[in-house]
Design a protein that fits this description.
Elements lengths: L26 E3 L33 E8 L10 H15 L7 E8 L4 H14 L4 E5 L2 H14 L3 E4 L5 H4 L6 E3 L4 H15 L4 E7 L2 H14 L5 E8 L7 H8 L5 E5 L2 H13 L6 E4 L6 H4 L9 E6 L13 H13 L8 H19 L5 H7 L29 E8 L2 E10 H5 L9
Parallel strand pairs: 2-3, 2-4, 4-5, 5-6, 7-8, 7-9, 9-10, 10-11
Antiparallel strand pairs: 1-3, 11-12, 12-13
Length: about 450
């Protein structure tokens, strides 16, 4: 049975108290091939044999200690579901008997979507809990804040839950890597769609005023450059703002054909509501993928919004086409057992599950069961399959390419469901690899 350990300690909270039912930790068995190396004991001991001199803090013959930092509270608390998906997958692996008798302790911390708290929790995980790796920080600001610390401590910061392009382009900091398609890749998919279907489109952009928002906006602007598609209005908002009604009113005055909403769920829902309320403006509404959730979409008055499009790369458990899919069935069954509080239809929950799968596969590919071994494994993935990704999408990284997923396809919101259309767009093939980060 999976042992659950409460580890969330938000500022002012009692240690061990769960926040929104998700500040929990799962323990499970995973494969960690030794590759000819031998673990010699306690948490600070160096590996022997071919792995001599590499760091094995947080990993022994019996256990691997992994930490994750999530906004279980605060303005981005919808992303707390990612931790639930991770916990369910780890529980599923454990339920199958584990591998090689080695357990993972998944320690969850809450940063409230505040970068300073993220660094504080990273220090606790690394220096007090002695984790082997930080598996996921959520959001560009928190991830950026933790990255410098992880780099100094030489701790892998693996498959962070943010699509900022910097995680795949900064060769000078190899300890941090993303997982999801970069915001630039997502922007490229939207740009390609408009160039093919609305080649003279005018676009109004609502974006979050941070690296996340600017990264996707800059990627889109670059992808439509030298085409007939033009950005005619931009409005930003702060994550601490109460709403975006004023910004939407200003964008509506542009009369743009398209509204590109680069938002987190709370503000994405507000943008959809205002779009529906402004009867004099009825643009194609492009909603970036990180804002999509059942809670957001169930509030949409589709009769008053012209069309809603987003980009997808993982299977949607609510889509009837996956009703009999074996991978989705395992996901649903495991979620019910190990994270019953989570909505199985929420993309954030599926994201956590798929990222956890990718993490396990990276652990299995380590040549040495060390921090250095994990760092190298996540940067040498070769068409690795994950069964809850859409068909045709795999994980690939290599020298000069730190983006595991750069392919997506479009989906249209119809009758309460996201319906994929068209083909998977391999943005590497269409636009070339992302060489430099579009955000600072």
């Amino acid at each position: 049975m999976t042992r659950v350990v409460a580890r969330g300690t938000p500022r002012g909270a009692v240690r061990g108290t769960a926040v929104r039912g998700t500040a929990m930790a799962a323990v499970l068995a995973l494969t960690l091939p030794l590759g000819g190396c031998r673990l010699t004991g306690g948490p600070e001991v160096l590996a022997a044999g071919a792995c001599r001199g590499q760091h094995v803090t947080g990993i022994t013959e019996d256990a691997v200690r992994v930490g994750g930092i999530y906004p279980l509270s605060g303005p981005a608390s919808a992303y707390g579901l990612i931790a639930s998906g991770v916990r369910a997958y780890f529980g599923h692996v454990n339920d199958g008997g584990g591998v090689d008798g080695r357990k993972i302790e998944f320690l969850v911390r809450d940063d409230g979507y505040q970068p300073a708290r993220a660094v504080e929790e990273a220090r606790r995980l690394v220096e007090l809990e002695k984790v082997f790796t930080i598996f996921q920080t959520v959001g560009t600001p928190s991830t950026a804040a933790v990255r410098d610390y992880a780099d100094r401590r030489r701790v892998p910061q693996v498959f962070v839950a943010t699509g900022a392009s910097r995680w795949g382009t900064d060769r000078g900091r190899p300890w941090t890597i993303g997982y999801q398609p970069s915001y630039v890749a997502e922007a490229r998919v939207y740009a390609q769609h408009l160039k093919e279907t609305m080649p003279r489109a005018t676009v109004a952009v609502l974006y979050q005023n941070d690296d996340f928002g600017r990264d996707l906006l800059d990627g889109f602007a670059d992808a439509v450059r030298d085409s007939g598609v033009r950005i005619v209005a931009e409005q930003s908002y702060e994550v601490t703002d109460p709403g975006v009604q004023g910004q939407l009113a200003n964008l509506a005055s542009s009369g743009a054909d398209v509204l590109l909403s680069v938002t987190t769920p709370k503000f994405g829902a507000q943008a959809l509501a205002v779009d529906a309320a402004i009867t004099s403006w009825n643009p194609l509404h492009i909603l970036n993928s990180v804002a999509v959730s059942p809670a957001v979409m169930k509030t949409v008055d589709t009769g008053k919004v012209r069309e809603i499009v987003s980009a997808v790369y993982q299977k949607d458990p609510a889509d009837p086409q996956w009703a009999d899919d074996p991978a989705v069935e395992v996901y649903r069954r495991s979620l019910l057992r190990y994270a019953p509080e989570a909505d199985p239809a929420a993309p954030q929950t599926v994201f956590g599950w798929t990222a956890a799968q990718a993490f396990v596969k990276a652990l299995q590919q380590m040549e040495c069961p060390t921090r250095e071994g994990l760092r190298d494994a996540v940067r040498s993935l070769d068409d690795v399959p994950v069964d809850t990704l859409l068909p045709g999408i795999t994980l690939s990284t290599g020298p000069g390419d730190g983006f595991p997923i750069e392919s997506m396809m479009l989906a249209r919101f119809e009758e309460g469901l996201w319906s994929p259309f068209g083909k998977v767009v391999d943005t590497r093939a269409v636009f070339g690899p992302v060489r430099t980060a579009s955000a600072g």
